[in-house]
Design brief:
12 helices, Aspartate Aminotransferase, domain 1, 12 strands, 396 residues, three-stranded antiparallel beta sheet, Aspartate Aminotransferase, domain 2, globular, alpha/beta
Length: 396
């Protein structure tokens, strides 16, 4: 396929050339073990620490509060398993977990495990725009709550949640606050030095670093038992020799994001809004799933009534346009999105919703190419839809 238009950046991003350049020497020239006593390993340890400082700066915290992991899912699991294991010793009376009903599978399935173990897992609801019910959070978080685990931005709709406000509520009741920020890091300001969030997860491949690296912020004083036991690496929080090239890459991606934030985010938003507004204006029976403003700048989830989203994706794929029908981690399932069901998206578009997620690599020419083809694709599919005679008599 000659032409590729990539609108699936919430699933993964292209590794930035600057990031590749930064990591290459650590695949060849600087191959020492950062835990070694000799200077050859010591210089590698220096660069690992530099990467840690870059990630810490991106999040507005200190390097000592950052540990490197293999991915966002590991960061989420470490936060949840590790903090609950510590609380079983220090606060066994806390047997409640509060989350939302639209979390990513990395959190949702992990908390299902704890529900089976006997924890009471309470889910905060979202409304039809995907906004979280903050009043419900005030009602359910209590002295029985061990952990509050809420995503910052939803991976399917991009809708933002008031994690700072929820963290304040959690703190009032002595609960630990964990935030899955995989989809918001570099898209939304995060300043942990002025926050009461205890644990925050991010993933490298969502911010133009390679797959296989993530990070977890652990606020100083927060007790988290490690998932992987062994050596002293990562402040004793994650044993095993560090994946140095990937860590260097994540540090480089963090630094790159900080240098671009003032110019690229507005460009991405303008392209996103242009495509979205064109679809709503020119293709009938379409609507945005999620709040129009309280969301990250790169994400648009569009419902196309009376047709299957998979059919749209297949037709887009034929002409080199890559989009998604939801979470990449749930792509093997034929079940409708749990996020859209929680938002009470009508049945007419529940299976016909497409997520377009952009990055700074996208161009206006790609937006125009999509406009030139998407309307025709939707019309053709509607003409063969079983609903066409009833809902689209002019096309049948």
């Amino acid at each position: 396929m000659d032409k590729i238009v990539y609108f699936d950046n919430n699933a993964t991003t292209k590794v930035a050339p600057e990031v590749v350049e930064a990591m290459i020497p650590f695949l060849s020239q600087y191959y020492g073990n950062p835990s070694s006593m000799h200077s050859f390993g010591g210089q590698v340890a220096y660069h690992v620490q530099e990467a840690r400082e870059n990630v810490a700066t991106l999040l507005g915290t200190t390097p000592e509060e950052i540990i490197f992991t293999s991915c966002g899912s590991e960061s989420d699991n470490t936060a949840i398993f590790g903090s609950l294991a510590a609380l079983e010793k220090t606060a066994p009376e806390r047997h409640q977990i509060v989350t939302s009903n639209v979390e990513h599978p990395a959190v949702r399935n992990t908390l299902a495990h704890f529900s089976r173990k006997g924890y009471q897992v309470l889910e905060l609801q979202v409304d039809e725009q995907g906004l979280l019910n903050l009043e419900q959070a005030k009602q359910v978080i209590s002295s029985k709550t061990a952990l509050v685990s809420i995503m910052h931005a939803n991976n399917e709709t991009g809708v933002l949640f008031p994690v700072e406000e929820i963290a304040q509520i959690a703190k009032q009741h002595g609960a630990i606050m964990h935030v899955d920020a995989v989809q918001s890091v570099t898209k939304e300001p995060i300043d942990l030095k002025n926050s009461v969030i205890d644990l925050l997860a991010l993933s490298g491949h969502k911010i133009h670093a390679p797959k296989g690296v993530g990070a977890l912020y652990i606020r100083k004083g927060t007790l988290v038992r490690p998932l992987i036991l062994g050596g002293h690496q990562e402040h004793g929080q994650r044993a095993g020799t560090e994946a140095v090239p990937n860590i260097i890459a994540l540090g480089a991606a963090a630094k790159l994001a900080m240098s671009r934030k003032d110019t690229e985010l507005e460009k991405i938003k303008a392209m996103r809004d242009d495509l979205e507004n064109w679809i709503l204006t020119n293709i009938p029976h379409t609507h945005v799933n999620g709040h129009r403003t309280k969301r990250v700048v790169n994400t648009s989830n569009i419902g196309f009534d009376y047709i299957e989203g998979e059919s749209i994706l297949l037709e887009l794929n034929k002409i080199g346009i890559c989009a998604s029908s939801g979470s990449a981690c749930s792509s093997g399932s034929l079940e409708p999105s749990h996020v859209l069901r929680a938002m009470h998206v009508p049945f007419t578009s529940l299976h016909g919703s497409i997520r377009f997620s952009l990055s700074y690599n996208n161009t206006q020419d790609e937006i125009e190419y999509t406009k030139a083809n998407l309307g025709q694709i939707v019309q053709r599919l509607r003409e063969i839809s079983p609903y066409s005679e009833k809902y689209f008599p002019m096309q049948s």
